[in-house]
Amino acid sequence: MHEKAADSNSHRKDKTVIQELTPRVLDDFLNFFDHEAFADNPSWFGCYCMYYHFTGTGGEWEKRSPSENRDAISVLIKNGKAHGLLAYVDGRPVGWCHAAPRTAIPRLKLHREFSVEDPERVGSIVCFVIAKPYRGMGIAHRLLDAACKMFTRQGLAFAEAYPRKRTESDADNFPGPLKMYLDAGFTVFRELERYVIVRKPL
């Protein structure tokens, strides 16, 4: 029974396809966040990964409605100003990675602790969301690998990420677990109070 389950998971993993976020896959992105992304974490429903594009205060962010975020991210995607990767299994979007040139993620500029001297050379990975039935299948690892390859094509020198030091749930791990990055060849660039900045040369 366990062998069959393992074979099934391996078969499904092999069918994973990664697509860069473009206007062509806007409907898939919205469908994922409308229904799958936070099915087991409804308090985060309505984010649509707009948080890292938002430059207002935390209180202002909390007042935003799901439809407001949905409309705003749709405009950014249509205009080529939102970046990331979608993971598909059997043609269905089941995972998301917000990966973009660091200079294209406005929220990072607001936090001095995350500042670096070479932002124009860096690709940043700030968020993963994997639909619950598909966790533990290696999809986040596939997205991470695809993000690094995307950054290389874009001529960036480093991939950078910001995993939390301590987590208590899958939701807490939205930046991606530290172990995943270390296993993928990232090293610690800087330790912060709650986060670790990790980097990988490309």
Topology of this protein?
Layout: H1 2-14, E1 16-20, H2 26-36, H3 58-62, H4 66-78, E2 85-89, E3 92-101, E4 122-130, H5 139-153, E5 158-161, H6 178-183, E6 187-191, E7 196-201
Parallel strand pairs: 4-5
Antiparallel strand pairs: 1-2, 2-3, 3-4, 5-7, 6-7
Q: Quick gist of this model?
A:
This protein has 202 residues and is α+β, with helices and mostly antiparallel strands. 31% of the residues lie in helices and 22% in strands. The protein contains 6 helices and 7 strands, in the order H-E-H-H-H-E-E-E-H-E-H-E-E.
The main β sheet shows up as: 7 strands, mixed
Count the beta strands: 7
What CATH architecture label applies? 3-Layer(aba) Sandwich
Mean pLDDT reading: 91
In the predicted model, the low-confidence regions spanning at least 5 consecutive residues are: 1-13
State Rg.
17 Å
* Count of helical regions: 6
**CATH-defined topology:** Aminopeptidase
Portion of residues within helices: 25-40%
Strand order within the widest beta sheet: 1-2-3-4-5-7-6
Gap between N and C termini: 41 Å
What is the CATH top level name?
Alpha Beta
Secondary structure class reads alpha+beta
String of helices and strands: HEHHHEEEHEHEE
- What percentage of amino acids are in beta strands? 15-25%
CATH superfamily label: Gcn5-related N-acetyltransferase (GNAT)
Total domain modules: 1
Q: What would the principal axes of the Cα set say about the shape?
A: globular
